Amino acid sequence: MQSESLCTAPEVPGHWLWGSLPEYQRGRLKFLESVRREFGTAVTYRLGTHRVFLSCEPDVLKEVLVTRHRDFGKSASTLMLKDFFGESLLTSEGVRWFEDRRLMQPTFSADQVRKFGSTMVGQSLSYAGKLSNGEHRDVLRDMQELTMSIAAETLLGVTLADEVRSIHEPHDLIRSSFDARVEHPVASFPWLPTRQNRRVKEATREIHGIVNAIITRRRGDRVSGGDVLSRMLQFQEQNPGQLSDERIRNQVLTFLFAGHETTASVLGWAWYMLAVHPDVENRLYAELDEVLGDRDPEIQDIPNLNYTARFVRETLRLYPSVYMMSRRSLRDCQVGGFNIRRGTTILMSQWLMQRDARFYERPLSFDPDRWTADFQQNLNQFGWFPFGAGPRKCIGDSFAILETVLVIATIASRVRFRLQEGQAIVPYPSVTLRPSPGIRVFCEQRRADFAKSESQIPTRVQF
Fold this sequence. Notes:
Strand order of the largest sheet: 1-2-8-5-3
Distance between the termini: 56 Å
CATH class: Mainly Alpha
Mean pLDDT: 90
Order of helices and strands: HHEEHEHHHHHEHHHHHHHEEEEHHHEEEE
Low-confidence stretches: 1-6, 452-463
Strand content: 5-15%
Number of strands: 12
Helix content: 40-55%
CATH architecture: Orthogonal Bundle
Structural class: alpha+beta
């Protein structure tokens, strides 16, 4: 066993028992920014008994995520997700993960993802068609429902109706429980029979029941397709005993919830960025009007929506849904010249790297124009990695980018969202980086075929 002195990275001074846990609990993002600012690109700290090595060095990230990824496993915070997702593509490791990834990969091929474009546009049109000129909305909640509907239809081959809204309350409860466990890693005992833990277990059972019903319905259709669920059911039928119903359910949970949550957060930030940067908003609308005119977007329009794509990249840079990643060292090792003890959590933060002055001029400014072809070609791989890197890079990265561009193009060609006054919207590092407490807007017509009749405009809307 290596001695403590072998870890040569600077260490954040902290309480003899709790370490830096109180500062971490007061604000994860501000804590990460402060240790990066005060101690440099490599630093260690303790959260109670958990030792963390935070690195902002691209070479270290490449070692951990790419060249030596087998030396590092899932961290404790990721493994907490097993309580809800079970063994799935998000949480599994080794042979199990490789088999799952190989089975799912064809759904996310370039050709298959392009086929999903019409569904993304269609669902966005359905949402926009229900809005009224002058109507007040929480656009973050709207994006959560929209992206869940898109994920269900494209990745699972089912259409959700009442289930979308009925799922949100138990899902919010589970998400808040996970946040509490991450913020209190020392006193996290989900097995205790507390009222809160009982509520979380009941919410999990409720969602599992809904997902089981979705799978049963899909199995009864006996219609094969390019979606993930169809591939799993077909594989199960052709290979008896190799893929259990529980494993199928776990994967469905992952794609339905993890898949929609990340994109919904990005879309929420995107609408907020448009609302607070009128010059960017005008540029984006001008491009949509020039490329689309009075028609709705199609997959063939993507190459011509250059500014919209840059806008999405810049939103993902400043407000990445996955704001940090972590791995656990499986053995004593050296990383980036530092000795790392077995069991140490290695933390890599998109929030820090994608706001780093080493990679960006005016890193805190929102500037879609920075994303020229030359800039992207010369940018370090870890200056922009919102979907991770290496073999375990998010399987749905191209899906998420396409969805975000098409949803924005479809809705923004018809409606403008104006911020309601008196809001204080801040980044909240939940499972994803969400705009908190939401984004309250009112709708403004952009196309004549958008607005409903004046009699349908509500006089008062409560949130």
